[in-house]
Amino acid sequence: MRPQTKRLADVIPAPALVVPEPAVTFTVAPEAVTALAPEPRDDGPVRLELGADELGPEGYRLEITAAGVTLRAAAPAGLFWGLQTLRQLAADDGVLPGGVIEDRPRFAYRGAMLDLARHFFTADEIRAHVDLLAQFKINHLHLHLTDDQGWRLEIPGWPRLTEVGGGPGTGCDGAGPGYLTLAEYAEVVAYAAERFVTVVPEIDMPGHVNAALVAYPELTADGQPVAPRTDAEVGYSSLVAGKEETYAFVEAVLKAVADATPGPFLHIGGDECLSTSAEDYRAFLTRVLPLPAKYGKRPVGWHEIAAVDLPEGAVVQYWRPQDEGTEVAAAVAAGHQVIMSPADRTYLDMKYDETTPIGLDWAGLVPVRRAYDWDPADRLPGVPETALLGVAAPLWSETLRSVADLQYLTFPRLPAVAEVAWTPQAGRDWASFRERLAGFGPRWDAAGVTWFRAPEIDWP
Ligand code: TNX
């Protein structure tokens, strides 16, 4: 059973330090907290202050006394995350438990990935998703914009990518076509930035490119057209490492995406190139990995890229649990940072259990406890805490047909991964998490969010 009274520690992700003052409460209007901007103000019941450098760029200090609330941070991002904490505490009745929270994230990169290629989600749908992610202090939204089944971002000078590649995604039911114009992409990026969420665009190559090959047959090995695909196979398409047309295309695309993206990262994919020879893979990436830096960005790639000599600043995203990660460890030894996304813990497209009607199971089932109960610094030999840029939860969309499907696989597992990424390992505990999580079910219901009533949790 859940406790009857709210506690100051009833927050996800769990704050780094909580000092309750049990005799004290202060009451606010929950809507007023939701409406607060992350900027200094000294009127009203909630004072917001900037200037507490010891809390770091995203940290905050929240003090709730009988006289009111004071939220302090070094930067607006810290005020924003503090407001998310306050918003959770104010939920339902506006009664805030007294005491002090001092909080800052374990990792700088706390990510969620959305696959727009296999099923397209509109700009409005992506924005609504950002709102839900930010409540759990997720600060990076990785958009998987291209794959075999679809190309979802307008690229100036290459109109056929979206005319042809804006096709139906997986399944032939027409549920998933579409693409973002550059203007829509800019609006999504700006909306996310207002919530301190950085968009990380991914153009997946040299594999996962059938949609591009359909649009521009001059990119295929023999220049002959290939057929569009709506099935969920992987590993059959490749850009051609030995063709100059390939690099003209890739550079035009990466320049366009970099120009449209204010954030520091540009993800170039690099996964599952099963129809690219090892030699071609190396030749291709050796030319392509320096391009993000040429246009002012840090390259990120799925961990297969660790097979090549990486340029300075390149980030490796670990995903495939079958791989021992020796190349990832070698990249770390060479000074590179890692984003941890092991599929058997963080993949939101894995089924929760045998009865889950959508999702995949190639990395096993991922119930809430599996998503929660692990330490990213203890996952791969040679990849310690100091090598981790962060943790991210990808959601691949082969089996998704609606926003309800997207939310069903996201909640309640995303909060589990968010706590893995934010809360110090010593401050995390499954028994505590499952108790805190229970309170979110009714809130998601009230907000019209679809979620999975995981049997591991005593939902009210
Ligand atoms: C593997 S994860 C892929 C994706 C699939 C996903 C399905 C990764 C880097 N590649 O192409 O959508 O499995 O779970």
UniProtKB/TrEMBL annotation:
Molecular function via GO: beta-N-acetylhexosaminidase activity
Biological process (GO) annotations held by this record are: carbohydrate metabolic process; glycosaminoglycan metabolic process
Catalytic activity, as annotated: Hydrolysis of terminal non-reducing N-acetyl-D-hexosamine residues in N-acetyl-beta-D-hexosaminides
Which residues does the Swiss-Prot or TrEMBL record annotate as the active site? Answer: 272 (proton donor)
- The organism's place on the tree of life at top rank: Bacteria
Q: Give the similarity note.
A: Belongs to the glycosyl hydrolase 20 family.
| InterPro entries documented for this protein | Beta_hexosaminidase_sua/sub, GH, Glyco_hydro_20_cat, Hex-like_dom2, HEX_bac_N
Q: Could you say which EC number(s) this protein's record lists?
A: 3.2.1.52
Domain (Beta-hexosaminidase bacterial type N-terminal) ranges: 43-103
An example of a Pfam family matching this protein is Glyco_hydro_20b
Q: Hydrolase: present as a keyword of the record?
A: yes
Keywords carried by this UniProt record: Glycosidase, Hydrolase
* Name of this chain's protein: beta-N-acetylhexosaminidase
**Mind telling me which GO cellular component terms the entry cites?**
membrane
All residue ranges annotated as the Glycoside hydrolase family 20 catalytic domain in the record:
107-275, 282-424
